[in-house]
Design goal:
The protein is α+β, with helices and mostly antiparallel strands. It contains 1 helix and 3 strands. The chain is elongated, with a radius of gyration of 16 Å.
Length: 75
C-alpha cells in the first residue's frame, strides 16, 4: 500500500484547521461570548460537570440539536 503524500498533506492541513476552529470556539464559549452553531445557527452551550448536566449528558460544548458536539475533559 502506498500513501499519496499530496492527499496526506491535504488531510493534515484540514485536520489542523478544524482543531484551530474548535479551539477558538471553546475559548469564546468559556469566555461567555455568544457563539452559534455553524450548521443550525442555534447558540452553543457549555455543559460543565457540576451544573446544567443531566445523567445522560457528557461535559462539553454543543448546540440543542447536537450538530456541534465538542467533548471536553474537566480537571
Amino acid at each position: 500500500m502506498t500513501i499519496d503524500i499530496k492527499k496526506f498533506a491535504e488531510l493534515q492541513k484540514a485536520s489542523k484547521e478544524s482543531f484551530f476552529q474548535q479551539k477558538q470556539i471553546v475559548k469564546q464559549v468559556i469566555a461567555g461570548k455568544k457563539v452559534n452553531c455553524n450548521v443550525c445557527n442555534l447558540p452553543l452551550m457549555l455543559i460543565s460537570p457540576k451544573k446544567d448536566r443531566n445523567e445522560n449528558q457528557i461535559e462539553g460544548i454543543r448546540c440543542a440539536k447536537g450538530c456541534t458536539d465538542i467533548q471536553l475533559d474537566f480537571v
